[in-house]
Amino acid sequence: MLFNSLPFVCYLVFTLLIYYLIPKKAQWCFLLVASYVFYAIADPRYLLFIITTTVTVWFTAIKVEELNLTQKAYLKEHKAELSKTDKQTYKNNMKRRRWKWLLVCLLFNLGILSVTKYTNFVISNINNMLNNAEMLRPVDLIVPLGISFYTFQSLGYVIDVYRGKQEAQHNVFKFALFVSFFPQLAQGPISRYGHLAPTLLAEHKFERKTFSYGVMRILWGYFKKVVIADRIITGVTTLVSDPKYTGTYVFCAMFFYAFELYCDFTGGIDITIGAAEAMGIKITENFNLPYFSKNIKEYWNRWHITMGSWFTDYIFYPISVCEPMLKLSKWSRSHLPKAIGKRVTVYISCFVVWLATGIWHGAAWNFVVWGLTNYVVIMASQELEPLYAKFHSRFHLKGKTPYEIFQIVRTVFLMSAIRMFDCYRDVPLTFKMMVSMFTSFKFSVFFNGSLLNIGLSASDYVVLAVGFAVVLGVSIIKLKAGSVRDRFYNKPGFLFYSIMAVLLIVVLVFGAYGVGYDSTQFIYTQF
Predict the structure, then answer these.
(1) Residue 70 is inside which H or E element, if any?
(2) Residue 423 to residue 236: CA distance in whole angstroms
(3) Where are the chain's structural domains?
(4) DSSP one-letter code for 204
(5) Cα 421 to the chain's mean position, in Å?
(6) Alpha-carbon span 242 to 245, nearest angstrom
(7) How many Å apart are CA 311 and CA 318, to the nearest integer?
(8) d(CA 141, CA 512)
(9) Is the pTM of this model over 0.85?
(10) How confident is the model at residue 516 (pLDDT cuts 50, 70, 90)?
(11) Which residue, 200, 195, 230, is CA-closest to 3?
(12) pLDDT digits (tens, 9 = 90+) for 291-339
C-alpha cells in the first residue's frame, strides 16, 4: 500500500475518522491495530520480523533496566560496608552483565537486517572474486518493508536505556506502537523514544488548527511527490538507462535526479509528519532546507536529520571514545605530526560512519562508493578550513549575498555529482558519465528539442518549471519567516483553506499517475 496510492488515502481517512470517534483512552490501542493491519496488507510475513524485533528489544531493555535498578539498590543498601574498590568491582561486573544483554540484542537484530538485505550482495561478491558466477546461488529472501528504519529506531531505544538516558517501557504493546507506527514505518524519520512516545501514547481531542495543519502538510507532500517527482522521474529513467545519453544529458540527469530525489523524499516525509500531525502526534522534522547549505557538512546537518543524528550518537561517539581509540589517539599524538595526530581518531570514526551510511542505503558497491565519496569531500573541506579562513580574511567575502549564493550553488553541484553513484547504480559507468560532462558537453541540446525525446513533453517541462518555482518560493519564505502555514493561517478570510483546495485540485489534475492510478514507489521505501 504505497503512500501515494488511492488505497492508502482511503486507509488514512478511515483511520483518522475512527481515531477521533473512539474513546481517547483507546486511541493508542487502535493505532497499534491500524499499524499492524497496514503492515500485514503489505505482506503478512513481514509481521514475524517486526514482532521479533519488538519483543527482543523490549525484553532486553527491561533486563538492562532491572540490572541498573539492582545496582543502585545494592550500592545504597551496602553503602557503609563496601570499600571504594569493592564498589568499583561490583559496578564493573554489573556493567558487563548489562553489556552482554545489549550485545546479544544488537547482534541478533542487526543480524536479521544483514541477512535479509545483504546476503545476496555477499554471495555475488564471493562469486566475482572466484570468477565463478554460479558457485553460490542467490537466495530468495524476504526484505521486510522499512526494516532499516524500524531496526535502527528500536536499537536506538535500547541503547538509550543501557546508557541510562531512557526509562524502559514495560508495556510491550505501547512499545510495539512506537516501533510500528504506520505513517513513519516505510521511510522514517528514525524517531527517538523520548521524543515520539509521549505524544504518540497521549490522548488527543480533535483540534481544527492541528488537523488542518496536518492535512495541508499531506497535500504539500503529495504535490511534491505526485506532481513533480513522479513526472520528472520519467526523464531521469530514460537518461540513465541508455549509455548513449552522455555529456549534456548527464548534466541534465544529474540535476533532474537531485530535484526528483528531494521532492520524492521530502514529499514522503511531509505525508508522514502531516498524517501524524492530523492525529495530534508530533514527529521529528527530517529536513531543514538542505539545498540552502553552504557546504556539505551543513548539508548533512539539514538532510535526513534523524539518520545523521542516529549515526553520530550510536556509531561515531562510541567509536571515538572506546578504549582502543583512546590508546590510538594517545599514540598518534606522540608519534605523528600534531595536526594529523590529534585527528586520526576523527578520520577513522568518520570513515566507519560513512561506510555504514553507504551500506545502509543499499547492498551495492555504488552506495559504498557514494558514502566514502561524501567522507572524502567532508574530510578534505575540514582540513582546508585554515586555508578558507585566510581567504575570507583577505577578500572579506564571507556574509556577502553573491558569495553565499556561490557557496549554495557549489554545494548543490557537489551533492548532485556525488549522487550520480546512486543514479547510475554502476561505479565505472558513473565515472565515465562524469567525464563525459566535460568532454562532450553541447549547449545545443538545450535548444534543439532533444530534451523533448526523453519521455517529457513541453507541457511536462512547464509543470516542472512552475513546480520548481513554487517549491523554491515556499522554501525562501520558510527560510526568512519561519512556518509558511502560520503565515497563511493567520490571514483573514479563507486563504488557508483556499490554498488547501488549490493544492488538492493541482494534485488531482496535474499528478503523474501510472497504471491503475498508482504513482511510483517512494525511493526511500526500498531502504
Answers:
(1) helix 46-77
(2) 8
(3) 6-206, 293-425
(4) -
(5) 18
(6) 6
(7) 10
(8) 32
(9) yes
(10) very low
(11) 230
(12) 999 999 999 999 999 999 999 999 999 999 888 888 888 888 888 887 7
Spatial distance between the Cα atoms of 447 and 445, rounded to a whole number of angstroms: 6
pLDDT digits (tens, 9 = 90+) for 47-96: 999 999 999 999 999 999 999 999 999 888 888 888 888 888 999 999 99
Residue type, 23: P
Q: How many residues does the chain have?
A: 527
**Distance separating alpha carbons of residues 239 and 287, to the nearest angstrom:** 28
Report pLDDT for 396.
82
Q: Which residues contact 114 (CB under 8 A, 6 or more apart)?
A: none
340 Cβ neighbours under 8 A, 6+ residues apart = 332
Query: Quick check: 282 and 202 in contact, CB under 8 A?
Result: no
**What is the structure's pLDDT at 525?**
53
Taking only the tens place, the pLDDT of each residue in 204-229 is 999 999 999 999 999 999 999 999 99
- Backbone dihedral angles phi then psi of residue 130, each to the nearest 5 degrees: -95, 5
Q: Which is nearest to 467 in space by CA: 144, 216, 232, 157?
A: 232
Structure-derived torsion over alpha carbons of residues 165, 203, 269, 274, reported in degrees to the nearest 10: -150
Q: Looking at residues 395-407, what average pLDDT do you find?
A: 87
366: its cell numbers: 555504488
